[in-house]
């Protein structure tokens, strides 16, 4: 019997590193050179097929990178199963910002969260300020997944989300529920086992 698992994914990172473009490429396989900055957060969904038996549905929260929205971020990464922290390989300061997001996740998000560090704009490697070696070493030290992507060309985009899907628990019990960060390990919701009814009655909710 095939099963579909559902996980909450949040994107974090400085403004203009390409978070929204990354999501647009992943969800719709599109790229827009002139995307406006996200206000608050945007919500999208996309499904990844792992094998004949298992599909993973991501509930994706694409958060705004501007400093004035930073206080809203915990609303989105709380109870998240996974996070993609994005930096721009042509901007060294954006990696420092990514490091601060990762420290915040390590302090405040659920301990079981899967974190991927993603260096975007790989198509602009001629203007690179962050070396692969530096970012990869940091990711290894912190126990993070790491990859470089190009939302513009699509390079590495599907691969990073598929790798995250594979790293998430595949045996999510139907009773998995979102509690306060740190109260219990988060697992995904197995959609194939859900009862009908409103979330919060007899059904797991991945809100």
TrEMBL record:
The answer, when asked if Cell membrane is one of the entry's keywords, is yes
Q: How does it sit in the membrane?
A: Lipid-anchor
State the PANTHER family in the record: PTHR47978
Question: What protein does this entry describe?
Answer: GTP-binding protein RAB5
- What Gene3D superfamilies does this protein map onto? P-loop containing nucleotide triphosphate hydrolases
Per UniProt, which keywords does this protein have? Cell membrane, GTP-binding, Lipoprotein, Membrane, Nucleotide-binding, Prenylation, Protein transport, Transport
Q: Name one GO molecular function term.
A: GTP binding
Just give the chief location class: membrane
Give the UniProt entry's GO cellular component terms.
endosome; plasma membrane
Q: Which SMART domains match?
A: RAB (SM00175), RAN (SM00176), RAS (SM00173), RHO (SM00174)
Stretches for region Disordered: 167-207
Specify the superkingdom: Eukaryota
Pfam family membership, one? Ras
**Transmembrane annotation, as ranges:** none
- Any one biological process term the GO annotation gives: vesicle-mediated transport
Entries under InterPro entries matching the protein: P-loop_NTPase (IPR027417), Small_GTP-bd (IPR005225), Small_GTPase (IPR001806)
Where in the cell? Answer: Cell membrane
């Amino acid at each position: 019997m095939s099963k579909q698992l559902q996980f909450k994914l949040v994107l974090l990172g400085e403004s203009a590193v390409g978070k929204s473009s990354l999501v647009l490429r992943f969800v719709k396989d599109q790229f827009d050179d002139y995307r406006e900055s996200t206000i608050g957060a945007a919500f999208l969904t996309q499904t990844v097929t792992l094998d004949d038996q298992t599909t993973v549905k991501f509930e994706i929260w694409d958060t705004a990178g501007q400093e004035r929205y930073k206080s809203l971020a915990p609303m989105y990464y709380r109870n998240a199963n996974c996070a993609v922290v994005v930096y721009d390989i042509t901007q060294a300061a954006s990696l420092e910002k990514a490091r601060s997001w990762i420290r915040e996740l390590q302090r405040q998000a659920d301990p079981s969260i899967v974190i991927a560090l993603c260096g975007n704009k790989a198509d602009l490697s001629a203007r690179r300020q962050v070396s692969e070696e530096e970012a990869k070493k940091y990711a290894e030290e912190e126990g993070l997944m790491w990859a470089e992507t190009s939302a513009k060309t699509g390079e590495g985009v599907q691969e990073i989300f598929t790798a995250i899907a594979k790293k998430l628990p595949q045996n999510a019990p139907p009773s998995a529920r979102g509690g306060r960060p740190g109260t219990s390990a988060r697992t995904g919701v197995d959609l194939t086992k859900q009862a009908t009814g409103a979330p919060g009655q007899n059904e797991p909710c991945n809100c």
